[in-house]
Amino acid sequence: MAKQPNKQPNRKGADMAEKQEMTVREKKEMVGKDEKTVPGRYFVPAADIYETEDALAVVLEMPGVEKKDLDLALENDVLKVDGRIDFSKYKDMEPVYAEYNVGHYARSFALTSHFDRDKISANLEDGVLTLTLPKAKHAQPRKIAIG
């Protein structure tokens, strides 16, 4: 009689889920060519970039930044993001333990001609900045009619 293969359910996915752990991601301190005139440390905000058929969404983590302290500028095909922290909120606090450094944020993105610069939009909510970069008409996918 032929030996039957072991019919155990696939545990590969379950094993991976069991082994996953949350890890603390270190903030990257900005080391750049530009000198800053605002006192304090600058960090590079973590970013996720998503693409749809008609736009690119850039999601940046900028905890502690308020709308009034956020500057976005587009110059020479470079989109610059600059978020400042109000340090007076932290002046009377003495951390017992800290995994989180407080500082300003700065990041730049070089843009190609595939984006409609006049329609770029931004939304800041709960320390998360979402930039929407609509694709220019010539960069969007289109159907080609067959004659």
Give the SSE map:
Layout: H1 12-19, E1 28-29, E2 42-44, E3 47-51, E4 55-61, E5 70-75, E6 78-83, E7 104-110, E8 121-125, E9 128-134
Parallel strand pairs: 2-7
Antiparallel strand pairs: 1-2, 3-4, 4-9, 5-6, 6-7, 8-9
Give a written overview of the molecule:
The chain is mainly beta and 147 residues long. The chain has a domain at 39-88 and 102-141: Sandwich (Immunoglobulin-like). The strands form two sheets. Strands 1-2-7-6-5 form a five-stranded mixed β-sheet, with no helix packed on it. It has a four-stranded antiparallel β-sheet with strand order 3-4-9-8, with no helix packed on it. The chain is built from one helix and nine strands. It is elongated, with a radius of gyration of 23 Å. 5% of the residues lie in helices and 33% in strands. It has one helix spanning 12-19; strands at residues 28-29, 42-44, 47-51, 55-61, 70-75, 78-83, 104-110, 121-125, 128-134. A hairpin with a 2-residue loop joins strand 8 (121-125) and strand 9. The model is unreliable at 7-17 (pLDDT under 50).
SS-based class: mainly beta
What is the straight-line distance between the termini?
A: 63 Å
* Alpha-carbon Rg, integer: 23 Å
**What series of H and E elements makes up the topology?**
HEEEEEEEEE
- Give the number of DSSP strands: 9
Q: Share of helix among residues?
A: under 10%
* Uncertain residue segments: 7-17
What general form does the structure show?
elongated
Main pleated sheet: 5 strands, mixed
The overall average pLDDT, rounded, is: 80
CATH topology of the domain at 39-88 and 102-141: Immunoglobulin-like
CATH class of the domain at 39-88 and 102-141, named Mainly Beta
Instruction: Specify the CATH architecture of the domain at 39-88 and 102-141.
Output: Sandwich
